[in-house]
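Q: Structure tokens for this one, please.
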Amino acid sequence: MQGRTVLVTRARHQAGRLSEELRERGAEVIEIPAIEIVPPKSYEPLDAALRNLSQYRWLILTSANAVEALRGRTAAAGIDAAAFAGVEIAAVGSATARALEELGLRVAVTPEEYVAESLVEALGERTRGQRVLLARAAVARDAIPDALRAGGAAVDVADAYRTVIPEDSVTAIRTIFAAGGRAPDAVTFTSSSTVTNFGSLLREAGVVAPAGMRAVSIGPVTSRTLREQGWEAAAEADPHDLGGLVEAVIRAVKDV
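A: Here is the predicted structure, written as tokens:
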């Protein structure tokens, strides 16, 4: 990817690994986070659930950000790994599973694909008649709770974090796209939130994404959000993780 410029929209504290791998492949990387991870409006629902873990048979976490919130709330409440002994844990994505294992928690189910529907399929009938705690972003698709409830599970959803638009990213976007210089060859999106927030950044900055800049998506849900925004992904990661995303960027810009 020598001579190619890639815009990374991932949250600042998570962009490092992706940016590093892209640079190792020869790309010039510009980091302008489209999302910032902040606490939910209240931790009380999550805290209450964690204080009563024994009532749950399953705990589902949808991202490493949710795991980080779990780490902080259990530490604040003095809850250790032993409290999870009777709880089966499911994680959406390998990064989420690794983060849980770093907490000393064993992951029972990780779907093959980094999408909610794949997790529901992997769980199968195991949650029928069981109580489930789902820790996730404050605004998220209801594919997991809806499907599990339809399958006979009792699901409690607790907000673990929110995603907001970083204020300084508006200025950065305006500087990059309004300067009249060469635009990035590709822009990466690691979630639907990065897609929708990137669109908001452009509108707030009063600029339009250059026609030649190619969108690269981490998976089908993110690609669908791109289409809803009128932007077809030039390439989609497979597998749906950061390694797959790097390879997708390479495919997207090879003929630029």
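A few notes: The longest strand covers residues 154-164. The radius of gyration is 19 Å.
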